[in-house]
Automatic annotation (TrEMBL):
Protein name according to UniProt: ATP-dependent DNA helicase RecG
Stated role: Plays a critical role in recombination and DNA repair. Helps process Holliday junction intermediates to mature products by catalyzing branch migration. Has replication fork regression activity, unwinds stalled or blocked replication forks to make a HJ that can be resolved. Has a DNA unwinding activity characteristic of a DNA helicase with 3'-5' polarity.
Phylogenetic classification of the source organism: Bacteria, Pseudomonadati, Pseudomonadota, Betaproteobacteria, Nitrosomonadales
Coiled-coil region list: none
Annotated Pfam families: DEAD, Helicase_C, RecG_dom3_C, RecG_wedge
Keyword Chloroplast: no
GO molecular function: 3'-5' DNA helicase activity; ATP binding; ATP hydrolysis activity; DNA binding
Residues covered by the Helicase ATP-binding domain: 273-438
Biological source species: Methylophilus medardicus
Keywords, sorted A to Z: ATP-binding, DNA damage, DNA recombination, DNA repair, DNA-binding, Helicase, Hydrolase, Isomerase, Nucleotide-binding
PANTHER family hit by this protein: ATP-DEPENDENT DNA HELICASE HOMOLOG RECG, CHLOROPLASTIC
Catalytic activity: Couples ATP hydrolysis with the unwinding of duplex DNA by translocating in the 3'-5' direction; ATP + H2O = ADP + phosphate + H(+)
InterPro entries on file: ATP-dep_DNA_helicase_RecG, DEAD/DEAH_box_helicase_dom, Helicase_ATP-bd, Helicase_C-like, NA-bd_OB-fold, P-loop_NTPase, RecG/Mfd, RecG_dom3_C
Enzyme Commission numbers on file: 5.6.2.4
Record-linked SUPFAM superfamilies: Nucleic acid-binding proteins, P-loop containing nucleoside triphosphate hydrolases
């Protein structure tokens, strides 16, 4: 495939500027599509101008003056046969003053505003014209750009590559004709050079069939790449692990609870995967408190019973330690050794854990990112479990998986997430995984009542906290920052801790935040779990994994500043016992943005993690929800998962048909859409 530098007109400077925009090739430039369009196909008389409209006028300069009060400014007056308008420039070059001399005919495009001398345009685009200079015959595209790269330069570059040889169709005609969509070449030409009679709204809201064709192509490329990766994984080798005959029964006999039907369904899906000769790569989704840990434990026992080790990795020490204690409590009575590994361990303790993992004494290793460091060696790793998987980068998860590659066998992988993934996100970015969902909470969990309270009612909330703790219950008070910040006038954890100690001298108040040493955090959390601390002041470090059934009240400061997923996770720290639980979202009336209000409305109205995740996707887009999972992977640029959900469904089915019957079309399509055929990195 020819590079841009081989084409006449593409100077090294232009290629360098395009590279800054992520445009290294002809196809990338063709798919660099307009953000919006200007209608420069007609000229409006000055007397017919309307406030707020973006429009094009033409006239002769009758006044040109640079003034210096109240600041330096260029004022130009333009006259046509029907009236005069003022053009105002706050930033300008001497060459612009010269180009707009009195008597010069200009064609000007800009937004009409009210001004001191009547209507005006501020910083409009303008160019010299003659009396018979024709107007544009097509709408003018406006592209994403970078400093030093003008719109005119991008348009010229696009027109240079908009040639038939670069616009070859990659798909069989039945694919796009069945959707009543145009072919690729006409779609691209129309979007780069739209005709003047086209409706701007259909172009700008991307519902025009030409936009839909390219959105479909992008979604299809994503599906093809994912399905290819999925198929390749099925060809890799992994240990075949039969179902557990004894350990799982022994564990269930000692559990103080029964598994839900939803948990049993998921356990069966995982057990089936582990019995296959290729690596499991399953994502286990379950809302806050749905019981994912016991499911992971039962999966681990299937491996352990047959002599294979298991690693479980969590993103924070608080969560990792919680898993360690819970799993050790279940497994040690069965005679299974569990090792604990974290970056803050003392050297002697760490070396002891490393030795037990390496010689196979410890069949289960639980820890943080310390698990994939070079010095960690497993005797025979058969399963890697990654909790809150979106918090780890691709490289980190790959490093853990490589710990288990013995005799050409890859370990199985189970990823867990308490942040439910909306269906469209799962179908697109997670299409290479098998997905299991625990869609029911264990019995005995009481629904959490959520209340929205403005921070001018703080005294009422303090009284409520006091009353709850006085009755033997426990409470969290969550603050977003540790130290004072002048830019964000938010209540800090340190100040709040001091204030709570002063306000409630009869209560035992604790403090936990991310900058405390691990041993300090653990001591505080243990005291809270043992009901030795009544009120825990904390940052969002307690967002995941903290399980204190007696804590039935949570107050979240400046809730308007937090994301939906974070609010839902925090709220899930209460309601874990039989007591009626309440989560109070304190918000600032003055600082609450429109998006902040949207988020608070969603979290107030719903306890359903999947509904909340869908709303989060609609508000924020997929980028933040995916976390670091997609390191090195391009995001969708044209398709929109909410708007184009129907196209995504069709792309999924079409991808399977093409992979089975049209391998050449698959190769050509991926070559165009995925950076000259590069594979999307998937772990």
């Amino acid at each position: 495939m020819r590079s841009l530098s081989e084409i006449k007109g593409f100077t090294p400077a232009l290629c360098s500027q395009l590279a800054k925009l992520g445009i290294p090739s002809i196809q990338a430039l063709l798919l660099h599509l307009p953000l919006r369009y200007l209608d420069e196909t007609r000229i409006t008389a000055i007397r017919d101008l309307r406030l707020g409209e973006q429009t094009q006028i033409e006239g002769v300069v009758v006044h040109n003056e640079v003034s210096y009060k109240p600041r330096k400014m260029l004022n130009v007056r333009l006259q046509d046969d029907t009236g005069i308008i003022n053009l105002r420039f706050l930033h300008f070059y001497p060459s612009q003053v010269t180009a707009m001399q009195i008597g010069q005919r200009l064609r000007v495009f800009g937004e009409v505003r009210p001004g001191f001398f009547g209507y005006e345009m501020v910083h409009p685009t303008q160019r010299k014209v003659g009396e018979d200079t024709p107007v544009n015959q097509a709408l003018t595209p406006v592209y994403p750009s970078t400093a030093g790269l003008s719109q005119a330069a991008i348009r010229k570059a696009v027109n240079l590559v908009l040639q038939p040889a670069n616009l070859l169709e990659t798909l069989p005609a039945w694919v796009y004709q069945s959707l009543q969509l145009p072919d690729f070449a006409s779609s691209l030409r129309l979007l780069h050079q739209p005709l003047p009679d086209m409706a701007l709204t259909a172009l700008e809201d991307r519902t025009h069939p030409a936009w839909q064709r390219l959105a479909f192509d992008e979604l299809l490329a994503q599906q093809l790449s994912m399905r290819q990766h999925y198929a390749r994984r099925k060809q890799s080798q992994a240990p075949k692990i039969a179902a557990s005959q004894t350990l799982v029964k022994q564990l269930q006999a000692q559990l103080p609870f029964s598994l839900t039907a939803a948990q049993q369904t998921v356990i069966a899906e995982i057990s089936h995967d582990l019995s296959q000769p290729h690596p499991m790569q399953r994502l286990l989704q379950g809302d806050v408190g749905s019981g994912k840990t016991i499911v992971a434990c039962i999966a681990a026992l299937q491996l352990i019973e047959h002599g294979w080790q298991v690693a479980m990795m969590a993103p924070t020490e608080i969560l990792a330690e919680q898993h360690y204690k819970k799993l050790a409590g279940w497994l040690v009575p069965l005679g299974i050794e569990v090792a604990w590994l974290t970056g803050s361990q003392h050297k002697k303790e760490r070396e002891h854990s490393l030795s037990r993992i390496a010689n196979g004494e410890a069949m289960l290793a639980v820890g943080t990112h310390a698990l994939f460091q070079d010095q960690v060696q497993f005797k025979q790793l058969g399963l890697a479990i990654v909790d809150e998987q979106h918090r780890f980068g691709v490289g980190q998860r790959l490093a853990l998986r490589k710990k288990g590659q013995q005799a050409q066998l890859e370990p199985h992988q189970l990823m867990m997430s308490a942040t439910p993934i909306p269906r469209t996100l799962s179908m697109s970015y997670y299409a290479d995984l098998d997905v299991s969902v625990i869609d029911a909470l264990p019995p005995g969990r009481t629904p959490i009542v959520t209340k929205l309270v403005a921070d001018d009612r703080r005294e009422e909330i303090l009284q409520r906290v006091h009353d709850a703790c006085a009755q033997g219950q426990q409470a969290y008070w969550v603050c977003p920052l540790i130290e004072e910040s002048e830019t964000l006038q938010l209540q800090t954890a340190n100040d709040t801790f001091a204030y709570m100690q002063q306000t409630f001298p009869q209560l035992k108040v604790g403090l936990v935040h991310g900058r405390m040493k691990s041993a300090e955090k653990q001591a505080v959390m243990q005291a809270f779990a043992a009901n030795e601390i009544h009120l825990l002041v904390a940052t969002t470090v307690i967002e995941v994994g903290v399980d204190v059934p007696n804590a039935s009240l949570m107050v979240i400061e400046h809730a308007e500043r937090m994301g939906l997923s974070q609010l839902h996770q925090l709220r899930g720290r209460v309601g874990r016992g039989a007591a009626k639980s309440t989560c109070i979202l304190l918000y600032s009336k003055q600082q609450c943005s429109q998006i902040g209000r949207q988020r608070l409305k969603v979290i107030f109205e719903s306890n359903d993690g999947f509904q909340i995740a869908q709303a989060d996707l609609n508000i924020r887009g997929p980028g933040e929800l995916l976390g670091t999972r997609q390191s090195g992977v391009p995001m969708l640029k044209i398709a929109d998962l909410e708007r184009d959900a129907a196209l995504l469904e069709i792309a999924k089915v079409t991808a399977d048909r093409l992979l089975e019957n049209h391998p050449a079309a698959v190769a050509a399509h991926l070559q165009r859409w995925l950076s000259q055929g590069e594979e999307w990195i998937k772990v």
